[in-house]
Amino acid sequence: CVVGLPLPNLQPCDVQKLTTDVALLFKAELAKRNIELRFDVQAQFDAVHLDRGQIEQVFVNVLKNAVEAIGEEGTISIRFSKQSGKPCLVIEDTGGGIPPSVKANLFTPFFSTKGNGQGIGLTLVQEILDGHKFEFSLESPPGGPTQFIVFFALQGTA
Known about the structure:
Elements: E1 11-13, H1 15-24, H2 27-33, E2 35-41, E3 48-50, H3 52-70, E4 74-83, E5 86-93, H4 100-103, H5 121-131, E6 135-139, E7 146-151
Helix pairs in contact: 1-3, 3-5
């Protein structure tokens, strides 16, 4: 444990509303960089039991990485769907993808490709999602698009 997170305080939460709220925080930055934000609701799902503050931090970190990966002019898509019957959230960006040598170290504490990066963003994301028992994956074929996928455990299945 890198950051000594408290145990998640699980409460029912509308993940779609939470994601929309977090995305609004990026509105000015997205406009400045000419990055389009798209929401695609392919499936509605019930409230998910989670720690809103912790999951909000996950979304902030993932969206910040997506914006930085794109740089200027691109698209971030936030898709709500179900895969294998599990509700999931996919955050996809049109950045250049992640080289395999970098991807192998992304969840390593204090590893960063950014000059001023501290290397705890994705480590924190991983700890929060593990603490919630939510499965996740990071898919990034060379040349992109990069997809960060979170599978939510429904009440009673965690």
